[in-house]
Design goal:
Shape: globular
Distance between the termini: 28 Å
Strand content: over 45%
Helix content: under 10%
Number of strands: 19
Largest sheet: 5 strands, antiparallel
Radius of gyration: 19 Å
Structural class: mainly beta
Number of helices: 1
Length: about 230
């Protein structure tokens, strides 16, 4: 199992890809996870030791993003992370990786989300604010709650923005659009949901549910340094 993160060092403008991999052992995942970093300036992957990047975090942690959502802001990549504190209980938090210092850290979630199922949460940007979405995991998705961090880094500024009763059976929340609409994936369609008007709009894109992914971007005319062509298999 592996999770990726993409971001840029704000000082050097060097684009980087982070890969966190969990190898399988006889008794489950092997800890600590393997951490690798690709730097555009060198066009190569480097292995980072856990002691080098842990930033005080224990080795027994997971990233709960089954569908791999992430947020990059303030020079850091954000995921939902968790550690198991009991066979039937977990402690969830926001896991961060600083693209400049190349170390991990964590940020607290709203208290009501700390012991929720980690696969029921994902991170997103709502305008310029960091947010977390938590949804009902009962068979098929019918409702969700959206939290927003009004002041980045201040756990006291978490605020429940709204709770949404979708009334329909959508299976994945992909993210939030700039206009505040939820971007959702059903078994075969991509749709948006307006929580104020409570209406659903089919966006005319059809595919399998696991093929949908959404992320934020910034338009630019700057070209990245050219990489090497991937050799074709013989």
């Amino acid at each position: 199992m592996s999770v990726h993160g993409f971001g840029v060092d704000p000082d050097t403008n060097d684009y980087k890809v982070m890969r966190i991999s969990y190898e399988r052992g006889d008794n489950g995942c092997v800890f600590p996870p393997k951490v690798e970093l690709y730097k555009l300036c060198t066009l190569s992957w480097v292995d980072l030791s856990w002691d080098q990047v842990r930033g005080g975090l224990p080795p027994f942690l997971f990233i709960g993003e089954y569908f791999g959502t992430q947020v990059f802001m303030n020079g850091k990549v954000h995921w939902i992370g968790y550690r198991r504190i009991h066979p039937s209980d977990v402690c969830c938090f926001v896991l961060l990786f600083d693209m400049k210092r190349e170390v991990f850290s964590e940020m607290e979630l709203p208290e009501s989300l700390v012991h929720k199922t980690p696969l029921s949460m994902s991170v997103a940007l709502l305008g310029e604010s960091f947010s977390v979405m938590e949804w009902n995991m009962c068979v098929q998705l019918k409702g969700c709650t959206i939290w927003i961090m009004k002041e980045y880094g201040s756990v006291w500024s978490w605020s429940k923005l709204y709770s949404v009763d979708l009334g329909l059976e959508f299976l994945r929340i992909l993210g939030l659009r700039k206009n505040g609409d939820l971007l959702l994936a059903s078994t075969q369609d991509l749709v948006s949901y307006n929580p104020n008007r409570q209406n659903i709009k089919n966006l005319g894109v059809s595919s399998t549910i696991n093929s949908f992914h959404a992320t934020s971007y910034v338009e630019s005319l700057a070209l990245l340094k050219e990489g090497h062509e991937v050799p074709k298999e013989a």
